[in-house]
Design brief:
Elements lengths: L1 H13 L3 E8 L5 E8 L2 H10 L3 E7 L10 H16 L4 H11 L3 H15 L4 H6 L7 H13 L2 H55 L8 H37 L1 H13 L3 H22 L4 H11 L3 H15 L4 H8 L4 H13 L2 H56 L1
Antiparallel strand pairs: 1-2, 1-3
Helix pairs in contact: 3-4, 3-8, 4-5, 7-8, 8-9, 8-11, 8-16, 9-10, 9-16, 10-11, 11-12, 11-16, 12-13, 13-14, 14-15, 15-16
Length: 411
């Protein structure tokens, strides 16, 4: 009996669901249409018939179409849903409006699937939990807290603000790191082109020179010979090393921990990454705590949202200490990853019973610090990059023109 039940459960789980667009008439004869998730068109017709809809057309929608769903799409959806619920629009109708009005077909399909889950009796949080790729534990926990307390509209608004701020700070960090990395890549490509195609031309010219070449010219020509002979090995090694690095980084927690620790110790960029991580950490904990999520449970979501393995490990340690009776401030102090200002603000927040407000102020402070640091870094990097590029390309040009200058002096 138990085996039969288990087999039936497994069979139900293995049934593949599809999205169907349907059209029909309700009891009053009015034409209605929509989308529904089901295992087949017969199930669609039976479901709608039970709802009093006389189905006239059912069409299976393809799974393709639409671009990738990004964090920005989820943030925008959260803000739209919060705004509509605050305006008194019913939840299912809000999903319909946002889904039909979205420019990304993939997002529309996702929202209609979630709407179908809610229609069939799932809570909103349960529906979100079925799509962990787009809605993490923090998102689902906050929605669940809002449903239980009857303040879903307020918590969605808070969640939308949180996601917008986190998205903004991530964008700042990516922008700060993208500029120097792109310049390094461009500099390498230009140097490789010069070494492979330009320097050999000068080498042929200098063969009939009949005199000793300057040392800088000989060095550049030797490097050029290596590039010409082993360009496939150089580019292949760099490509293979990058692939291995990112492959290992994604799959090895120890690798992630080591790299995140190195990044925090980097000159200039390390402090910027640390400030951004602390801002994200305090913003997440503030949002969770203000929503009424217990501290120990909130710290579990904070660890995942930290975005840095060093702070992830520290948060897990803090969670363990807090669960055994330590105060949050003492546990944070023992982790040795937070500056004194953060610890003092948390201590004041715990004593005054306004921990969420204090953490929010700390997040505001460090977000402003990140903004200032990115602006300063952009101003600082431009002249440094110009000097490095000028020195590299200028050095190559001078090295190759030295023999010509020498020939002019002889003449």
């Amino acid at each position: 009996m138990a085996t039969t039940a288990a087999a039936a459960k497994k069979e139900a789980k293995d049934v593949k669901m599809h999205t169907y667009a349907w059209e029909g008439k309700d009891k009053s004869g009015k034409i209605v249409k929509g989308e529904i998730r089901a295992s087949g068109d017969a199930v669609v017709k039976a479901t709608l018939r039970r709802q009093g809809v006389n189905v006239t057309k059912v069409k299976k929608l393809g799974s393709g179409g639409g671009s990738k769903i990004t964090e920005k799409d989820i943030s925008l959806f959260t803000r739209q849903l919060a705004t509509m619920m605050k305006a008194g629009v019913p939840l299912l109708q809000a999903f319909d409006i946002v889904g039909k009005g979205h420019s990304n077909a993939a997002v529309s399909r996702l929202l209609f699937e979630i709407k179908t889950e809610v229609e069939t009796g799932s809570s909103l949080a349960q529906a979100f939990r079925k799509y962990p790729l787009y809605f993490d534990n923090l998102f689902c926990n906050l929605v669940a807290a809002g449903e239980q307390a009857g303040i879903l509209d307020s918590l969605l608004d808070r969640l939308a603000t949180y996601k917008e701020k986190i998205l903004a700070i991530k964008s700042k960090i990516k922008g700060a790191l993208f500029y120097p990395v792109s310049i390094i890549v461009v500099a390498f490509v230009i140097t490789a082109v010069i070494m492979i195609f330009v320097i050999p031309t000068f080498k042929e010219l200098f063969k009939s020179f009949g005199a000793d070449l300057p040392a800088p010219t000989l060095v550049v020509m030797a490097i050029s010979e290596i590039f010409v002979s082993y360009w496939w090995l150089i580019f292949g090694s760099i490509g293979g090393a990058l692939w291995f690095f990112f492959y290992t980084w994604k799959r090895s927690e120890q690798m992630q921990f080591t790299m995140d620790r190195i990044m925090l110790k980097m000159p200039i960029f390390g402090e910027l990454i640390r400030k951004a991580t602390i801002a994200r950490w305090t913003r997440t904990l503030s949002t969770m705590f203000a929503a009424g999520v217990p501290l120990v449970e909130a710290l579990d979501s904070v660890a995942g949202a930290a975005g840095n393995r060093v702070y992830y490990a520290a948060t897990k340690k803090i969670q363990s200490e807090v669960s055994t009776g330590s105060s949050l401030t003492v546990a944070m102090q023992n982790s040795n990853v937070f500056p004194n200002m953060v610890l003092q603000m948390c201590a004041i927040g715990e004593e005054s019973g306004a921990l969420d407000g204090m953490l929010s102020k700390v997040a505001d402070f460090f977000e402003a610090e990140v903004d200032d640091a990115v602006d300063s870094l952009s101003s600082l990097m431009e002249p440094i990059i110009m000097v490095v590029l000028g020195g590299l390309i200028g050095g190559l040009v001078i090295a190759m023109y030295l023999p010509i200058f020498k020939m002019g002096q002889v003449v």
